[in-house]
Amino acid sequence: MKRSIPFLTLCGAALNFTSCSDNAKTPNVVFILADDLGYGDLGFLGQKHFDTPNIDRLASQGMVFTQHYSGSSVSAPSRSVLLTGLHTGHAPIRGNKEMPGEGQEPMPSSAYTLFDLFKDKGYSTGVFGKWGLGYPGSDGAPSAHGVDDFYGYNCQRYSHSYYPDHLWDNDEKVVLEGNIDRQENDYAPALIHEQAIDFIREHKDAPFFMMYTSVLPHAELKAPKEDIDRFADRFAPETPFNGVDDGPYYRKGNYESQPRPHAAFAAMVTLLDRQVGEIVAELEALGLADNTMIVFTSDNGAHQEGGADPDFFDSNSCWRGYKRDLYEGGIRVPLIVRWDGKVREGSVSGHISAFWDFLPTLAEAIGADVPEGTDGVSFLPELSGQGEQQEHDYLYWEFHELGGRQAVRCGDWKAVANNISAGRNVELYNLKDDPSETADLSERFPEKTAYMDSLMRASHTPSESFPFPGD
Q1: Which end of the chain is more exposed for a tag (fewer CB within 10 A), N or C?
Q2: Long-range pairs, 107-111, Cβ under 8 A, ≥24
Q3: Do residue 383 and residue 369 come from a single domain?
Q4: Are 406 and 271 in a shared domain?
Q5: Which residue segment(s) compose the domain that 227 sits in?
Q6: Any bridge partners for residue 410, and if so which?
Q7: Distance CA 389, CA 391 (A)
Q8: Global pTM?
Q9: pLDDT tens per residue, range 130-182
Q10: 307 with 447, same domain?
Q11: 302 and 172 housed in the same domain
């Protein structure tokens, strides 16, 4: 069921809906993907330490999904799942596999992606932010997968720095002279944002699909000084992160040292919020908002690297775990869809969905054929209130680090297996009664546990590039 409410601060919700009129024109699609943003890092989902008014407003203008899941609990496989409509048991990229030099394991040219889908329907396509699915010139580069305009970080490892010495403009390396000696003249999210706004302006007269793959608020903890200073009083005095990155020196360890980690994190999320507001404002100023679907979500749960403090901010709300976990905190993410004339304002959905649903959903939204073999289920009926909404039999995830992890959700039941290389120890939870996954019920319900384990085993297909324990 559905009900319409303006804001949501609980871990779950139901909803109520009436259908809206159809749009006559083919819609533009702006897909905003935050990086490591936790479920509780947004004001309308309970964040108390800072405000996110623009994203909150976007939520009040569209539909909020309370049971939506990312493709994985880390970056590259989550994006691979999103683009291909295949969960991590089938997707071409299943882990953050680094390549020599710059870049990650290339997504094969044979993979059919969202960009191919939109190009087949005559759309202009753009990606602004982080790619992470293949080094420049490889089969996995953006230009090899139907992306007309790319600007940002090709390599997710390079995206750890917010003042990099270079970015990529399609296949051209753009050297940022001011950052070579770490003078911090070019804040990458600002440069990328400018290019995204230009893309919208340049394609205002024809349908476009833009992915805004922000690196905010991924570690390292870094924002322009004036943004951090806005939180100086709120979080002062702060205790610096007491780890390998502690101290005043730039890039000591894997991430920059940050003497004001709480203020920096708040600044990063509020900067992301401001940029979302500017994208929406540009669409409205150009008269495009009425015919543009805007999607906002995050690639996985909150992280703990570089001094980030998700416990202080309650970033994962009531969900257990963090980035890299297959508990809810690692994979349950916020999802907002605003589509004027199609999606009722202030509506909230309890429909269970995941990243591999975007390909069939967007295909149906633009009148394209859904490719065969997808793992996804279109949730356009849920968005529009028209037609019967198909439900998943189950959802599946696998994670290729830390000994191998698997998880499956079937209705209210959730099974998780950790460190599979050391043996299969399957935990069982009932999310309806125990949303925080505190009580392992595997011994109490052995038959249910065995069934869930069988689903995990059946959902995985071997991959030469990403071997998994037991292959």
Answers
A1: N
A2: 107/80, 107/83, 107/133, 107/134, 107/139, 107/140, 107/145, 108/139, 108/140, 109/139, 109/144, 109/145, 111/83, 111/84, 111/145
A3: yes
A4: no
A5: 12-392
A6: 413
A7: 6
A8: 0.93
A9: 999 999 999 999 999 999 999 999 999 999 999 999 999 999 999 998 776 65
A10: no
A11: yes
